[in-house]
Write a structure and sequence with these properties.
This protein is an alpha+beta fold. The protein folds into three domains: about 1-50; about 95-210, Immunoglobulin-like (Sandwich), CATH 2.60.40; about 215-325, Immunoglobulin-like (Sandwich), CATH 2.60.40.1470. Helices cover about 15% and strands about 40% of the residues. Strands 2, 4, 5, 7, 8 and 9 form a six-stranded mixed beta sheet that branches. Strands 12, 13, 15, 16 and 17 form a five-stranded antiparallel beta sheet that branches. The chain has a three-stranded antiparallel beta sheet with strand order 1-3-6, with no helix packed on it. It starts with a helix and ends in a 7-residue tail after the last strand.
Length: about 325
């Protein structure tokens, strides 16, 4: 059947060719006839190649912009996330900081209504970049003339440190005042500094007395490990504290210690230091740790001045880690 159709087609082409030749070699060929012949040949070639019926052409497809297909599981709307969930996520991922140093030590003495600037040097210990949508907010205590919140003044990449300063004012009435502040992520999660995320604080003494007053303006620590390395049965840590006064002063102080728990202990006996001028003096305290001491139980010591004004200074850490301090 296929050969018969093919033969008839060839005969029809030969007849058309003879008729065209008879009209004269110089005559203009009808384009519609040429087109018909070409279409017939093309159709037969397709049939020969496929040996299957032709199908209608498919709709034309144009290339448009790439689009991502959404996942089958819908994203959880922010409105359905509880505050506790949002806070926990922010604290874990971005709300991690440590305090490197601070100005205006606790117990600094000011006359009523005296303005002062409290500065904390903060380190971003998270893997997030803090932008200016992060805040420092008033958390507890006496606001001391400050605002209730301030945006961070600069972008702080992970691992970077920056000074965070607040201009405050001493209250009008004599007494001891503490102002506590927290950092806050853009989604409203509050966080502080250190392992326990403690608040940043400014503690001052307001004294309207006309007598000149001096105070301890700084305490610097140094820890010496003996032996420096290794894991002996007993390791001695000597903690040195250098206290600096801004003038003649007699103070009574004690060592305050802790071991990674909320409980703290004031060590006795008290120590009395007399400063005859603006100067520095160094005292020390020993701590003996045994090989069985829990490595993760972080120990610390701090200086606390009990007289003439209460001043508690930032603590220094030490721990039996079987290595360099």
């Amino acid at each position: 059947m296929f050969n018969l159709v093919k033969s008839k087609t060839i005969i029809a082409i030969l007849i058309l060719t003879i008729l065209l030749s008879a009209c004269g070699g110089n005559a203009t060929q009808d384009p519609s006839i040429s087109t018909a012949v070409a279409q017939t040949v093309a159709a037969q070639n397709v049939s020969v190649a496929t040996e299957t019926p032709l199908t209608a052409p498919s709709a034309e497809v144009t290339q448009g912009p790439l689009q991502f297909i959404p996942t089958l599981t819908p994203l959880v709307p922010m409105a359905s996330v509880t505050p506790a969930q949002a806070t926990a996520s922010a604290k874990t991922e971005c709300g991690q900081a440590s305090m490197i140093s601070e100005t205006v030590p606790d117990g600094a003495i000011y006359a009523p209504k005296t303005p002062f600037t409290k500065t904390w040097e903060i380190k971003n210990t998270s893997n997030c970049t803090w932008d200016t949508n992060y805040k420092i907010i008033f958390f507890d205590g006496e606001i001391m003339g400050g605002g209730y919140y301030y945006n961070l003044p600069q972008v702080v990449p992970p691992g970077a440190t920056f000074p965070l300063s607040l201009v405050l004012k001493a209250p009008e009435t004599d007494g001891t005042y503490t102002s506590k502040w927290m950092l806050q992520t853009p989604d409203g999660a509050n966080f502080g500094v250190g392992q326990y995320s403690v608040a940043l604080s400014a503690q001052i003494v307001v004294d309207s007395s006309t007598k000149p007053k001096y105070s301890i303006i700084s305490v610097d620590y140094k820890v010496v490990r003996d032996p420096p390395t290794g894991c002996p049965a007993n390791t001695r840590y000597t903690i040195y504290a250098t206290l600096t006064s801004d003038g003649p002063l007699k103070v009574t102080l004690q060592w305050l210690q802790g071991s990674g728990t909320p409980e703290t202990e004031l060590l006795r006996p008290p120590v009395v230091l007399t400063f005859t001028k603006a100067e520095s003096q160094t005292i020390s305290h020993d701590a003996l740790l045994h090989l069985g001491a829990t490595p993760g139980n972080q120990r610390w010591k701090a200086i606390v001045i009990t007289d003439p004004y209460y001043q508690e200074f930032y603590h220094v850490n030490y721990n039996y880690d079987c290595g360099d301090y």
